[in-house]
Amino acid sequence: NISYRYQTPGTIVFTWDPPAPTERNGVIVKYDVQFKKDVSLNNDYIYTGNSTLPKIVFNGLDENMRYIFKVRAITKKGPGPYSQDLVLTTQQDLVRAPINLRGMATSESSIEIWWEPVPSHSKLIGYKVFYSMAPTPDMEQWQQLMVA
Predict the structure, then answer these.
(1) 29 to each of 14, 19, 54, 77, 100, how far by Cα in Å?
(2) Angle at 13 between CA 97 and CA 129, to 5 degrees
(3) Same domain membership, residue 25 and residue 74
(4) Which of 27, 26, 11, 16 has its CA nearest to residue 82?
């Protein structure tokens, strides 16, 4: 059971359920993940690697592009079968992020930020500001602030 959700139009979080205990060949030590663009004549994977958690984040993806994701569990005895391919199309960015983001420390514990809006065909009602004290690609771990 694989699921995904968009954090931004170019960032996707994949999560999956481990295989049922009766279908495992021992204790799972990691997951083998493969992710690629679904482009004919190109079988190169954007990402081939491992995850110790049943979750992975991909960012910097192209808009309105088909991608293929698959995963398999690995035990000390070796890998299991891959999941079925999950084919998805990334969203088209309807509202772009602001440009020329700048910041300045106003004290030891605060910062002031400002930016220029990007022209949009729709009416903006506010901004969601994400921030983190440490770099991490998983925005679920970031703090959020709504600015009207």
Answers:
(1) 18, 12, 11, 10, 43
(2) 30
(3) yes
(4) 16
71 and 112 assigned to the same domain = no
Tell me if 94 is assigned to some domain.
no
Residue 102 near residue 113 (C-beta atoms within 8 A): yes
Per-residue pLDDT tens digits for 23-75: 888 999 999 999 988 876 566 667 778 899 999 998 888 888 889 999 999 99
Strands 66-75 and 78-79: antiparallel
Answer yes or no: do 15 and 74 share one domain: yes
Residue 58, domain CATH: 2.60.40.10
The model's pTM is 0.66
Instruction: Determine the distance from the C-alpha atom of residue 144 to the mean position of all C-alpha atoms in its chain, rounded to a whole number.
Output: 17
In terms of domains, do 85 and 104 share one? Answer: no
Half-sphere exposure of 43 (CA within 13 A, CB side): 0
